[in-house]
From TrEMBL:
PANTHER family: 3-OXOACYL-(ACYL-CARRIER-PROTEIN) REDUCTASE, 3-OXOACYL-[ACYL-CARRIER-PROTEIN] REDUCTASE FABG. Belongs to the short-chain dehydrogenases/reductases (SDR) family. This is 3-oxoacyl-[acyl-carrier protein] reductase. It is an enzyme of class 1 (oxidoreductase). The keyword Oxidoreductase applies. InterPro entries: NAD(P)-bd_dom_sf, Sc_DH/Rdtase_CS, SDR, SDR_fam. Signal peptide: none annotated. GO terms for molecular function: 3-oxoacyl-[acyl-carrier-protein] reductase (NADPH) activity. Pfam families: adh_short_C2 (PF13561). Keywords: Oxidoreductase. It comes from Lactobacillus colini.
Length: 242
């Protein structure tokens, strides 16, 4: 079986992951919350290219209560790949952030993903070569000022992958984190051209990452040959902050 669910499939990195996995023979659940049109368009694109595979959209609000999460996860067809490519940030000083903003960042980036993993565990342990991949960040290893809560959530994902990866390693369920540096996506489009040029100057590779630089590693982590790699955080940052 090769069926994966991509949470955050409508984002720049999420779409690249979907296209990469589809080309590799995966059927996919394409998760979205507010961007239904993008999810449907992506599903239609992939169905036309790969008619022998299934591409289904899945709407889920990561602010949902536990009952709703369980109902939606219980409705899924079996999957053996789970990719968390979603995430939000708030570029601000901690003292200037509303308490509700802090709570939302932690819930969407960390708490809800861990609950989903817990709900999916019985399904993932039933099949060989199951995979969980989180999209982390270089800021999970070297935290960023003005994004301290975001950095904390990404660092926590790496710690979770280490611990949970050990729990389930004997079942051939691997748990890893791909931690990109600066990627040319809408999340970084909030910064000025001058700021992004300064960042490029700091990156030894001389450019921002493309979404495909990230999706390549997700595809390889989902391969059966990756059974012996678990609990790791792989930094894909052009040599920037590692």
């Amino acid at each position: 079986m090769k069926r994966a669910i991509i949470f955050g499939a409508t984002g720049g990195i999420g779409q690249a992951i979907a296209r990469e996995l589809a080309a590799d023979g995966w059927s996919l659940y394409l998760h979205y919350f507010s961007q239904q049109a993008q999810a449907l368009a992506l599903s239609e694109e992939l169905m036309q290219q790969y008619p022998k595979q299934d591409f289904m959209t899945l709407k889920l609000d990561f602010n949902s209560d536990d009952k709703t999460l369980k109902r939606i996860i219980d409705s899924l067809l079996p999957v053996n790949g789970v990719v968390f490519a979603h995430g939000i940030t708030d570029f601000n000083f901690l003292g200037s952030q509303d308490l509700s903003t802090i709570e939302t960042l932690i819930k969407i980036n960390l708490t809800t993903p861990l609950k989903i993993v817990s709900l999916l565990e019985p399904m993932l342990l039933k099949v060989d070569h199951s995979r969980i991949v989180f999209l982390g960040s270089v800021y999970g290893g070297q935290a960023s000022a003005m994004e301290s809560v975001y950095s904390a959530t990404k660092g926590a994902l790496s710690s979770f992958a280490q611990g949970y990866g050990r729990e389930v390693a004997s079942s051939h369920l691997t748990v890893n984190v791909i931690a990109p540096g600066a990627v040319a996506t809408k999340m970084n489009a909030i910064f000025s051209k001058e700021t992004l040029e300064q960042v490029k100057d700091e990156i030894p590779a001389g450019r921002l990452a493309k979404p495909e630089d990230v999706s390549f590693w997700v595809k390889n982590l989902l391969a059966p040959q990756s059974d012996y790699l678990t609990g790791q955080t792989i930094y894909v940052d052009g040599g920037w902050l590692v």
